[in-house]
Backbone:
Protein backbone atom coordinates (compact mmCIF):
# COMPACT_ATOMS: atom_id res chain seq x y z
CA UNK A 1 0.00 0.00 0.00
CA UNK A 2 2.85 2.37 0.86
CA UNK A 3 4.63 1.76 -2.46
CA UNK A 4 1.44 2.52 -4.43
CA UNK A 5 0.96 5.76 -2.49
CA UNK A 6 4.51 6.85 -3.22
CA UNK A 7 4.09 5.98 -6.89
CA UNK A 8 0.97 8.16 -6.97
CA UNK A 9 2.79 11.17 -5.49
CA UNK A 10 5.77 10.72 -7.80
CA UNK A 11 3.44 10.66 -10.81
CA UNK A 12 1.63 13.78 -9.65
CA UNK A 13 4.95 15.57 -9.11
CA UNK A 14 6.12 14.64 -12.62
CA UNK A 15 2.88 15.95 -14.11
CA UNK A 16 3.20 19.23 -12.20
CA UNK A 17 6.81 19.70 -13.33
CA UNK A 18 5.85 19.00 -16.95
CA UNK A 19 2.91 21.43 -16.88
CA UNK A 20 5.04 24.11 -15.20
CA UNK A 21 7.82 23.81 -17.74
CA UNK A 22 5.34 23.85 -20.63
CA UNK A 23 3.53 26.95 -19.35
CA UNK A 24 6.89 28.74 -18.93
CA UNK A 25 7.59 28.40 -22.67
CA UNK A 26 4.51 29.40 -24.63
CA UNK A 27 3.62 30.78 -28.05
CA UNK A 28 0.25 32.59 -28.22
CA UNK A 29 -1.00 33.50 -31.71
CA UNK A 30 -2.58 36.89 -32.38
CA UNK A 31 -5.85 37.38 -34.27
CA UNK A 32 -4.54 39.78 -36.93
CA UNK A 33 -1.38 41.81 -37.48
CA UNK A 34 0.14 44.21 -40.01
CA UNK A 35 3.77 43.75 -41.06
CA UNK A 36 6.13 45.73 -43.28
CA UNK A 37 8.29 42.96 -44.71
CA UNK A 38 7.88 40.43 -47.53
CA UNK A 39 8.20 37.51 -45.11
CA UNK A 40 6.49 36.74 -41.81
CA UNK A 41 8.43 35.63 -38.75
CA UNK A 42 6.87 33.86 -35.79
CA UNK A 43 7.58 36.69 -33.36
CA UNK A 44 5.56 39.06 -35.56
CA UNK A 45 2.30 37.14 -35.19
CA UNK A 46 2.66 35.66 -31.71
CA UNK A 47 3.50 36.55 -28.13
CA UNK A 48 6.49 34.39 -27.17
CA UNK A 49 7.45 33.70 -23.55
CA UNK A 50 10.27 31.59 -22.19
CA UNK A 51 13.92 31.04 -23.12
CA UNK A 52 13.22 27.83 -25.02
CA UNK A 53 10.31 29.36 -26.97
CA UNK A 54 12.47 32.37 -27.97
CA UNK A 55 14.68 30.00 -30.02
CA UNK A 56 11.87 29.88 -32.61
CA UNK A 57 11.14 33.64 -32.64
CA UNK A 58 12.98 34.32 -35.91
CA UNK A 59 11.50 31.30 -37.67
CA UNK A 60 10.01 32.25 -41.07
CA UNK A 61 6.49 30.87 -41.33
CA UNK A 62 5.12 32.59 -44.42
CA UNK A 63 5.73 35.02 -47.25
CA UNK A 64 3.69 37.34 -49.47
CA UNK A 65 3.69 36.31 -53.13
CA UNK A 66 0.45 37.07 -54.95
CA UNK A 67 -1.59 38.85 -52.27
CA UNK A 68 -1.03 41.42 -49.56
CA UNK A 69 -3.04 39.32 -47.09
CA UNK A 70 -1.96 36.01 -45.66
CA UNK A 71 -3.86 33.55 -43.44
CA UNK A 72 -1.64 31.43 -41.19
CA UNK A 73 -3.31 28.57 -39.33
CA UNK A 74 -2.20 27.21 -35.96
CA UNK A 75 -1.95 23.68 -37.37
CA UNK A 76 0.49 24.92 -40.04
CA UNK A 77 2.69 26.53 -37.39
CA UNK A 78 2.61 23.32 -35.37
CA UNK A 79 3.85 21.35 -38.39
CA UNK A 80 6.65 23.86 -39.02
CA UNK A 81 7.76 23.72 -35.39
CA UNK A 82 7.62 19.94 -35.46
CA UNK A 83 9.93 19.92 -38.50
CA UNK A 84 12.26 22.18 -36.51
CA UNK A 85 12.30 19.43 -33.85
CA UNK A 86 10.41 21.45 -31.22
CA UNK A 87 10.00 19.61 -27.91
CA UNK A 88 6.25 19.72 -27.19
CA UNK A 89 6.93 18.59 -23.67
CA UNK A 90 8.57 21.96 -23.06
CA UNK A 91 6.56 24.14 -25.43
CA UNK A 92 2.86 25.07 -25.67
CA UNK A 93 1.06 26.60 -28.68
CA UNK A 94 -2.13 28.55 -27.93
CA UNK A 95 -4.08 31.66 -28.92
CA UNK A 96 -6.23 32.11 -32.03
CA UNK A 97 -6.77 29.20 -34.44
CA UNK A 98 -5.63 31.37 -37.34
CA UNK A 99 -3.88 34.71 -37.82
CA UNK A 100 -4.66 37.16 -40.62
CA UNK A 101 -1.48 38.96 -41.66
CA UNK A 102 -1.63 42.07 -43.83
CA UNK A 103 1.39 43.56 -45.59
CA UNK A 104 1.91 47.25 -46.13
CA UNK A 105 2.50 48.43 -49.67
CA UNK A 106 6.23 48.60 -50.43
CA UNK A 107 7.82 52.03 -50.69
CA UNK A 108 8.52 53.23 -54.22
CA UNK A 109 11.91 52.20 -55.52
CA UNK A 110 14.46 55.01 -55.48
CA UNK A 111 16.24 55.23 -58.82
CA UNK A 112 19.73 56.71 -58.62
CA UNK A 113 20.88 58.28 -61.86
CA UNK A 114 24.68 58.00 -62.07
CA UNK A 115 24.93 59.75 -65.42
CA UNK A 116 26.56 63.14 -65.74
CA UNK A 117 23.62 64.55 -67.63
CA UNK A 118 21.67 67.26 -65.84
CA UNK A 119 18.43 66.30 -64.14
CA UNK A 120 15.53 67.40 -66.30
CA UNK A 121 12.70 66.45 -63.94
CA UNK A 122 12.09 64.56 -60.74
CA UNK A 123 9.86 61.49 -60.68
CA UNK A 124 6.65 62.23 -58.77
CA UNK A 125 5.11 59.25 -57.05
CA UNK A 126 1.29 59.50 -57.02
CA UNK A 127 -0.27 59.46 -53.58
CA UNK A 128 -3.25 57.12 -53.15
CA UNK A 129 -5.85 59.32 -51.46
CA UNK A 130 -8.22 56.35 -51.25
CA UNK A 131 -5.92 54.35 -48.99
CA UNK A 132 -7.34 53.93 -45.50
CA UNK A 133 -4.53 54.34 -42.96
CA UNK A 134 -6.28 55.25 -39.70
CA UNK A 135 -6.80 52.83 -36.84
CA UNK A 136 -10.56 53.37 -37.25
CA UNK A 137 -10.42 52.16 -40.86
CA UNK A 138 -8.35 49.17 -39.74
CA UNK A 139 -11.10 48.22 -37.27
CA UNK A 140 -13.77 48.64 -39.97
CA UNK A 141 -11.80 46.51 -42.44
CA UNK A 142 -11.27 43.84 -39.77
CA UNK A 143 -15.03 43.55 -39.14
CA UNK A 144 -15.75 43.57 -42.88
CA UNK A 145 -13.28 40.73 -43.42
CA UNK A 146 -14.66 38.65 -40.54
CA UNK A 147 -18.28 39.22 -41.64
CA UNK A 148 -17.38 38.67 -45.31
CA UNK A 149 -18.87 41.91 -46.54
CA UNK A 150 -17.79 45.42 -47.55
CA UNK A 151 -17.15 48.00 -44.84
CA UNK A 152 -19.72 50.13 -46.72
CA UNK A 153 -22.39 47.58 -45.70
CA UNK A 154 -21.50 47.96 -42.02
CA UNK A 155 -22.56 50.62 -39.58
CA UNK A 156 -20.10 50.80 -36.66
CA UNK A 157 -20.79 53.41 -33.99
CA UNK A 158 -18.34 54.41 -31.24
CA UNK A 159 -18.45 56.80 -28.31
CA UNK A 160 -16.57 60.09 -28.78
CA UNK A 161 -13.70 59.15 -26.44
CA UNK A 162 -13.23 55.83 -28.27
CA UNK A 163 -13.20 57.65 -31.62
CA UNK A 164 -10.30 59.76 -30.37
CA UNK A 165 -8.29 56.61 -29.65
CA UNK A 166 -9.00 55.32 -33.16
CA UNK A 167 -8.11 58.56 -34.98
CA UNK A 168 -4.35 57.79 -35.03
CA UNK A 169 -2.47 56.63 -38.13
CA UNK A 170 -1.31 53.02 -38.50
CA UNK A 171 1.63 53.85 -40.79
CA UNK A 172 4.79 52.28 -39.39
CA UNK A 173 2.89 50.67 -36.51
CA UNK A 174 1.70 47.15 -35.76
CA UNK A 175 -1.77 46.62 -34.30
CA UNK A 176 -3.92 43.66 -33.33
CA UNK A 177 -7.74 43.94 -33.38
CA UNK A 178 -9.46 41.36 -31.14
CA UNK A 179 -13.28 41.45 -30.86
CA UNK A 180 -14.42 39.72 -27.67
CA UNK A 181 -17.33 37.28 -27.63
CA UNK A 182 -18.91 35.04 -30.27
CA UNK A 183 -21.02 37.59 -32.16
CA UNK A 184 -19.59 40.41 -34.25
CA UNK A 185 -22.96 42.21 -34.46
CA UNK A 186 -24.76 44.18 -31.79
CA UNK A 187 -22.77 45.60 -28.89
CA UNK A 188 -19.22 44.33 -29.26
CA UNK A 189 -16.23 44.71 -26.94
CA UNK A 190 -12.93 45.18 -28.82
CA UNK A 191 -9.38 44.91 -27.45
CA UNK A 192 -6.72 46.82 -29.40
CA UNK A 193 -3.05 45.97 -28.87
CA UNK A 194 -0.09 47.85 -30.30
CA UNK A 195 3.16 45.91 -30.74
CA UNK A 196 6.81 46.80 -31.07
CA UNK A 197 9.35 44.01 -31.52
CA UNK A 198 6.68 41.41 -30.73
CA UNK A 199 5.91 43.06 -27.38
CA UNK A 200 2.72 44.89 -26.36
CA UNK A 201 3.46 48.58 -25.79
CA UNK A 202 -0.13 49.78 -25.54
CA UNK A 203 -3.45 48.05 -24.96
CA UNK A 204 -6.95 49.45 -24.58
CA UNK A 205 -10.58 48.33 -24.80
CA UNK A 206 -13.34 50.04 -26.76
CA UNK A 207 -17.03 49.30 -27.39
CA UNK A 208 -18.98 49.49 -30.63
CA UNK A 209 -22.54 49.03 -31.84
CA UNK A 210 -22.29 47.08 -35.10
CA UNK A 211 -25.11 46.55 -37.63
CA UNK A 212 -24.97 44.93 -41.06
CA UNK A 213 -26.98 45.74 -44.17
CA UNK A 214 -28.72 42.71 -45.68
CA UNK A 215 -31.56 42.05 -48.11
CA UNK A 216 -34.70 40.56 -46.54
CA UNK A 217 -38.46 40.23 -46.86
CA UNK A 218 -40.36 42.83 -44.82
CA UNK A 219 -44.06 42.49 -44.03
CA UNK A 220 -46.13 45.38 -45.41
CA UNK A 221 -49.12 44.55 -43.19
CA UNK A 222 -49.94 42.70 -39.98
CA UNK A 223 -50.43 38.95 -40.45
CA UNK A 224 -51.89 36.30 -38.14
CA UNK A 225 -50.54 32.90 -37.24
CA UNK A 226 -51.80 30.26 -39.68
CA UNK A 227 -52.31 32.75 -42.52
CA UNK A 228 -51.03 31.87 -45.98
CA UNK A 229 -48.59 34.66 -46.87
CA UNK A 230 -49.83 36.71 -49.85
CA UNK A 231 -47.06 37.71 -52.25
CA UNK A 232 -48.18 41.36 -52.22
CA UNK A 233 -48.01 41.43 -48.39
CA UNK A 234 -44.19 41.38 -48.34
CA UNK A 235 -41.45 43.40 -50.02
CA UNK A 236 -37.75 42.76 -50.56
CA UNK A 237 -35.82 45.59 -48.87
CA UNK A 238 -32.38 46.59 -47.58
CA UNK A 239 -32.43 46.37 -43.80
CA UNK A 240 -29.90 46.73 -40.97
CA UNK A 241 -29.60 43.79 -38.57
CA UNK A 242 -27.67 43.40 -35.32
CA UNK A 243 -27.86 39.60 -34.93
CA UNK A 244 -25.37 37.27 -36.56
CA UNK A 245 -26.91 33.85 -35.83
CA UNK A 246 -30.08 34.27 -37.93
CA UNK A 247 -30.59 35.58 -41.47
CA UNK A 248 -33.88 36.95 -42.88
CA UNK A 249 -35.61 35.29 -45.84
CA UNK A 250 -34.14 36.83 -48.99
CA UNK A 251 -36.43 35.41 -51.69
CA UNK A 252 -40.19 35.35 -52.26
CA UNK A 253 -39.80 31.78 -53.54
CA UNK A 254 -39.02 30.68 -49.97
CA UNK A 255 -42.48 31.72 -48.72
CA UNK A 256 -44.59 30.51 -51.66
CA UNK A 257 -47.28 28.18 -50.33
CA UNK A 258 -46.09 28.63 -46.72
CA UNK A 259 -48.10 29.65 -43.66
CA UNK A 260 -47.08 31.65 -40.61
CA UNK A 261 -46.10 29.98 -37.36
CA UNK A 262 -46.66 33.17 -35.34
CA UNK A 263 -48.25 36.63 -35.76
CA UNK A 264 -46.15 39.13 -37.73
CA UNK A 265 -46.50 42.86 -37.24
CA UNK A 266 -46.23 45.42 -40.02
CA UNK A 267 -42.62 46.31 -40.85
CA UNK A 268 -41.15 43.12 -39.33
CA UNK A 269 -38.53 40.97 -41.04
CA UNK A 270 -39.46 37.41 -42.00
CA UNK A 271 -37.16 34.58 -40.90
CA UNK A 272 -37.20 30.87 -41.80
CA UNK A 273 -38.38 30.09 -38.26
CA UNK A 274 -41.54 32.19 -38.89
CA UNK A 275 -42.97 30.05 -41.72
CA UNK A 276 -43.84 26.42 -42.35
CA UNK A 277 -45.60 24.26 -44.91
CA UNK A 278 -49.39 23.97 -44.44
CA UNK A 279 -50.60 20.90 -42.54
CA UNK A 280 -51.77 18.09 -44.81
CA UNK A 281 -53.05 16.11 -41.82
CA UNK A 282 -54.92 17.62 -38.87
CA UNK A 283 -55.03 16.24 -35.32
CA UNK A 284 -57.83 13.67 -34.78
CA UNK A 285 -58.29 13.32 -38.55
CA UNK A 286 -58.77 9.83 -40.02
CA UNK A 287 -55.87 9.12 -42.33
CA UNK A 288 -55.04 6.46 -44.89
CA UNK A 289 -51.82 4.62 -44.03
CA UNK A 290 -49.87 2.50 -46.52
CA UNK A 291 -47.77 -0.09 -44.64
CA UNK A 292 -44.87 -1.33 -46.77
CA UNK A 293 -42.87 -4.52 -46.23
CA UNK A 294 -40.67 -5.28 -49.22
CA UNK A 295 -42.97 -5.78 -52.22
CA UNK A 296 -46.03 -6.16 -49.96
CA UNK A 297 -48.23 -3.09 -49.38
CA UNK A 298 -51.21 -3.04 -47.01
CA UNK A 299 -53.54 -0.07 -46.67
CA UNK A 300 -55.21 0.59 -43.33
CA UNK A 301 -56.84 3.40 -41.39
CA UNK A 302 -55.57 5.36 -38.39
CA UNK A 303 -56.33 8.43 -36.32
CA UNK A 304 -53.81 11.31 -36.32
CA UNK A 305 -52.54 12.30 -32.88
CA UNK A 306 -51.04 15.58 -34.16
CA UNK A 307 -50.87 17.92 -37.15
CA UNK A 308 -48.42 17.01 -39.91
CA UNK A 309 -46.81 18.75 -42.90
CA UNK A 310 -45.35 17.13 -46.01
CA UNK A 311 -42.48 14.71 -45.20
CA UNK A 312 -43.00 15.26 -41.46
CA UNK A 313 -43.06 12.27 -39.09
CA UNK A 314 -46.17 12.17 -36.89
CA UNK A 315 -47.81 9.73 -34.49
CA UNK A 316 -51.08 7.96 -35.36
CA UNK A 317 -53.32 5.40 -33.56
CA UNK A 318 -54.58 2.24 -35.26
CA UNK A 319 -58.38 2.11 -35.35
CA UNK A 320 -58.57 -1.56 -34.42
CA UNK A 321 -55.75 -2.35 -31.95
CA UNK A 322 -55.48 1.24 -30.60
CA UNK A 323 -51.68 0.95 -30.81
CA UNK A 324 -49.73 4.08 -31.75
CA UNK A 325 -46.95 4.19 -34.33
CA UNK A 326 -45.21 6.70 -36.59
CA UNK A 327 -45.90 7.55 -40.22
CA UNK A 328 -44.38 9.93 -42.77
CA UNK A 329 -46.88 12.40 -44.24
CA UNK A 330 -47.00 11.90 -48.01
CA UNK A 331 -50.12 13.84 -49.00
CA UNK A 332 -53.41 15.28 -47.85
CA UNK A 333 -54.82 12.77 -45.34
CA UNK A 334 -52.24 10.14 -46.34
CA UNK A 335 -49.09 8.68 -44.84
CA UNK A 336 -46.65 5.78 -45.14
CA UNK A 337 -44.94 3.52 -42.63
CA UNK A 338 -42.24 0.93 -43.25
CA UNK A 339 -42.42 -2.59 -41.76
CA UNK A 340 -39.28 -4.76 -41.62
CA UNK A 341 -39.43 -7.35 -44.42
CA UNK A 342 -40.53 -10.76 -43.16
CA UNK A 343 -38.91 -14.06 -44.17
CA UNK A 344 -42.06 -15.91 -45.29
CA UNK A 345 -45.11 -13.61 -45.28
CA UNK A 346 -47.15 -16.19 -47.26
CA UNK A 347 -46.95 -18.80 -44.48
CA UNK A 348 -48.10 -16.44 -41.73
CA UNK A 349 -51.60 -15.66 -40.60
CA UNK A 350 -52.97 -12.50 -42.24
CA UNK A 351 -53.76 -10.91 -38.90
CA UNK A 352 -50.20 -11.49 -37.63
CA UNK A 353 -48.29 -9.91 -40.49
CA UNK A 354 -48.34 -6.39 -39.05
CA UNK A 355 -49.47 -7.14 -35.53
CA UNK A 356 -46.34 -5.72 -33.94
CA UNK A 357 -47.12 -2.29 -35.45
CA UNK A 358 -50.84 -2.32 -34.68
CA UNK A 359 -51.78 -3.00 -38.30
CA UNK A 360 -54.12 -5.93 -39.12
Residues:
Amino acid sequence: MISKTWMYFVGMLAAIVTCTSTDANSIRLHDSVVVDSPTVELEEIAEIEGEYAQKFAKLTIGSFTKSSELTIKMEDIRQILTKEKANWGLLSLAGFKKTIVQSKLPLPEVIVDKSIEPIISNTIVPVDMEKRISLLSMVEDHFASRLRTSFKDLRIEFKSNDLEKLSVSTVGKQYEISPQGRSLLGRVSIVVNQYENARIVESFRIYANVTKRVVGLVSQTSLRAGDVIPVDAVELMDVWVNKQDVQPIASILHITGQILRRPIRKGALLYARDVKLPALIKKNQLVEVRAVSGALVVTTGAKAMQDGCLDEVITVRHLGSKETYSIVVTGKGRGTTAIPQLQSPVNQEPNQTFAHRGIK
Q: What stands out?
A: The chain has four domains: 2-103, 135-212, 214-276, 286-341+352-357. Confidence is low (pLDDT under 50) at residues 15-22, 342-358.
